Amino acid sequence: MSWRDSAACLGTFDPAFFPAKGHQSNRHAKAICATCPVTAECLDYSLTYRCYYGIWGGLTEKERRKVKRQREAVAVPEGKKRCSKCGWVKRLDQFPRQRAIKDGRTSACRTCRNELARDNRRAGSWA
Ligand code: SF4
Ligand SMILES: [Zn+2]
Questions:
Q1: 71-110: per-residue pLDDT in tens?
Q2: Ligand 1: does its nearest atom lie under 6 Å from the Cβ of 42?
Q3: Which protein residue's CA is at the shortest distance from atom 8 of ligand 1?
Q4: Is 57 in the pocket of ligand 1 (CB under 6 A)?
Q5: 94 near 30, Cβ under 8 Å?
Q6: Ligand 1 centroid, distance to 30 Cα (angstroms)
Q7: Which residues place a Cβ less than 5 A from the ion ligand 2?
Q8: pTM of this structure
Q9: Would you state the pLDDT for residue 57?
Q10: Cα(121)–Cα(108) distance, rounded to whole angstroms?
């Protein structure tokens, strides 16, 4: 089961989540997000997969950019590393042990990599 299965917006297809610039209020979408149990996961997902458009995790595009900047501004302490996808600073054991990780060529955390693999498997099964 993925976090999406618990989403308050599941199956709503509400256009308020993707308001046209300057035309539509996002208040309705934000009200739904306010009741959602997976706002943190939703926000992380949108930052990880660069979903720029619409309301995610109860935040607008502009508000999410601010969160991203704030996360990036946090210094990375010794023994930790920042995931290039979700932007969280995590312990090194939360990254796959590979040369590529150590030399910085790729640095997505295990959670992000698992999420991506799951999405790829799903996409494959729909094809
Ligand atoms: S936080 Fe909002 S957009 Fe994200 S899953 Fe919940 S209701 Fe949907
Ligand atoms: Zn990550």
A1: 877 778 888 888 877 878 889 899 887 766 666 556 788 9
A2: yes
A3: 9
A4: yes
A5: no
A6: 8
A7: 83, 85-86, 109, 112
A8: 0.64
A9: 96
A10: 18
Multiple choice CATH, 75-127, 3.90.1640, 3.30.60, 2.60.40, 1.20.120: 3.30.60
Q: How far does the centroid of ligand 2 lie from the alpha carbon of residue 85, in Å?
A: 5
How far is ligand 1, taken at its centre, from the CA of residue 36, in Å? 6
Token duo for residue 93 = 């054991």
Instruction: List where CATH 3.30.60 sits in the chain.
Output: 75-127
Q: Which two tokens stand for residue 62?
A: 């502009």
Give CA torsion, residues 13, 52, 72, 28, to 10 deg: -40
Residue appearing with tokens 């297809």: 13
